[in-house]
Amino acid sequence: MAELRKKAQSLAAKPWFRMPRQPMLRHLSYAAVAVVFLYFLTQKLSAFNDYEVGEIAFYAVALAGLTLLTGINGQISLGHGGFMAVGGFTLALLVEHTTWNVVPELAVAIVTSALVGAVIGIPATRLRGPYLAGMTLMVALGLPYLTNQYDSFFGGDQGLTTPQPTGPASINPEQWLAWIQLACALIVLILLGNLLRSRFGRSFRAVRDDEIAASLAGIHVARTKVIAFMVSAGCAGLAGALLALSAGGVNSAEFPLSISIYLLAGMVIGGTGSLMGVWWGAILIVYLPTSWAPSLASHFHVNSQVSANLAVIIFGLVLVVGMLVAPGGIQGALRWVAARVGAYFSPDGLPNMKLSLQEAPTDRAVHDSESVTQAGKPGV
Amino acid sequence: MQFFLNITLGGIATGMIVAAVALGLVLIFRATNIVNFAQGAMAMMTTYIAYAILHKGSGYWLAFVAALATGLLFGAVTQVVLIRPLQGKSPLNAIIVTFGFLIFLEGLAGAIWGSQTRTYPAPFSEAGQRIGNTQIAFSPFDVFVVLAVLALMILMMVLFRGTDLGLRMRAVAFAPEAARLLGVRVRPLLTLGWALSAAAGVLAALLVVPTSSLTPNFMDVILIYGFTAAVVGGLDSPVGALVGGLATGLSLAYVGGYLGGSLEPMAALALVIVSLMIRPEGLFARPAPRRV
To answer: Which residues does chain A have within 8 Å of residue B112's beta carbon, measured at their own beta carbons?
Structure first.
């Protein structure tokens, strides 16, 4: 046993392969591996499973935006479903009134929702506190009413149709759509990964940890918060536009408050502040309401009233219990396990403290593995 | 002119209800810096309980009192179980927990009582009055709404300004550390604050439910109007909650009356944006120095 351990240590000291130090190269090589894996995955799966993979992809985009906002920048949105609706309706209106290709349509959807984000984000930065949370909740609750008011423009209850983009004839449409959605997800994750390693990413973290220290260090706090919020809303808009492509149309019922709740719960489950954790959250959002909750309900023979609400109840519990008990989420738990395993093989037998969950500051919800400033006193 | 008058009167009645919600939010915010997004859902649960009591054959007033008492208890238990463990942590955690609780309660209500709409009776006639030749859209029930919220405000005022307990509660809200050092027991007072706030929410729910209808999410929109009112008035000012509530109720009534009822939630958002741009601290908030 000791020999094995020694061998592992010497292997660990001289790894046979090292990821590139350049963030861009590193993220691209992750993405290359993901592309190969996802290509074979989508080939193997049935058309319906391809559709679900596509759904996972766009929820991952929305979650990446939310996790950047909350986990990295320390702001919160309770209504990201509202920004998804903005993106979805923008795409549908472009489909209706223009003959554009899907790429510029998606780009305009991103820009539109980022601008709506700025309208909400700018006033909210004037004060500390829960203003952003309340205002985003108002967006999510109010938008369906708005589309009802101008129903001739937004298509009323029927909504607007968004035909699926068609690819080469040899590829079935679900697979083509899943590829578009996966490509968007990978591009967004690469770009956000780079953004977080850049000056902006460091400013986001600094503002989260201590606004006063950040502003003393020369960071324009309000501007940083608005930029983070716009990037986040833009991601949600892209996700909404991709959802519209999957659903074949948009109407206000497509973006209920529950989407915003799902996103928040997905973020908490995945691990707030971790870009890799968004995949866990996205899987939960896609499978819990449509597959896991119904099978749980039928297993326990509960009546239809309970089973209709089971997913929402579970998501609510995830938010409350997850926040009280395990704010690190799945990714945090994985990091904790990795640190324990690493400790066994490390020369001094100590866990790598940078990765250890217990090292994570306890006075804030959100932590990623690197922190710029010391955690400030909350609620100052 | 008559249309304008009727809209104004309707706006005042709505505004008083919104003010009660805002007061509940303000009570909690000034003591703990938390906006309780679950307040509406907690009041919704309590209203369902009142509905059940009502259908057991008891009278309106017994259900009314029982709902308020349940609300007090519910607020206290929530504070002890969910909010106390969050003390000293980031305000983000509290936002996520209260929001998650909102969702949980709405799901639970749907699972227990279903999502069909139910009608909840009003204690007084909801029909408008005829004065001379003009029809006035102000019913005896609206009078009751205004009086009930005014009574709540006066009770709160007496509690906070006139009693020893209120003085201690204000001390805890203003400077918890100093209050603790001076021998005030902070934790029970925070629990009491949550109980009172929940009761204010329940009163608002009982006043709004006869004109809307009882569903698991009937308080959602009222909650965001209450938030609007609290922001307009200043999140830590009870007087601001009343004035903000009336301002919000009237603005929304005019928007709904002249532009279309579906625009009201977005008009509320616009009101928040404008009020944050013009007077970020709110109309009545004390200026808040930020300590480093």
So the answer is: 305
